[in-house]
Amino acid sequence: MEKKKEPLFVALSNQKGGVGKSTLTILLASYFHYRKGRNVLVVDCDYPQHSIRDIREWDIKTVEKNEKLQGKLLEQFEGSERKAYTVLTSTPEDAKQTAYEFLDRSETSYDLVLTDLPGTVNAAGVFRSLVNMDYLFVPVTQNRMVMQSSMNFVLAIRELLSRNDSFPLKDIRLFWNCMDRRVSKELYRAYTEIFRHLKLKTLETVLPKAERFNRGICTDGQVFRSTLFPPSPSLLKGSHIDLLADELETILGLTD
Known about the structure:
The mean pLDDT is 89. The protein is α/β, with parallel strands linked by helices. It has one domain (8-243): Rossmann fold, CATH 3.40.50. It is globular. The protein has a six-stranded parallel β-sheet with strand order 3-2-4-1-5-6, with helices on both faces. The protein is built from nine helices and six strands; from the N terminus they run E-H-E-H-H-E-H-E-H-E-H-E-H-H-H. It is 42% helix and 12% strand.
């Protein structure tokens, strides 16, 4: 039997809640899995609420009640033979163990394990889980408190890595989420300069502030944030989720 390749473990995390990490984890998982054809596993460690698990359950119930959505799901499966990606639940400290218990049983070779961690580093095992990821991407918003907290978060992880080079974490990058065009660009430029001064890496992709990021499955068949479908093309346009996925593919070395 051919040996399965080792998946990349990726976390979207921030010690501040409300920055969109769970929503972006779902969007990226669905885009990579259903649109890009990557085999994705999601580990929901946002204990105890497990919001991604709850959204998967809501998605299933919504489809069960709507024949049009059932047809859409069947058409998607017949076109690609791709089943819905698995969502596991775990505590932060057991994230990798939970993933590997599933991966070892699976006959599928996975490309990505996306991990959603709590919005506080005070939760048990969060720091340990983060430094045992392969890559960490940190969404930030224009809020000053979020920015200060996010920088402290990344600097603390970088300091921990500098004292122990045995941790797997290869790269940490911040990226702008919920960018409101009406807000002065001075704040954006000021923090970009601070990032540069502190040698904090950032992604080029900037995600706009848009109501669609709160939109799940609609009965008219339009979808944005869903664990069962990729974003609908009309809603994907201008969201920059496709650009973010392309940039992450390059960083992660998944462009083959």
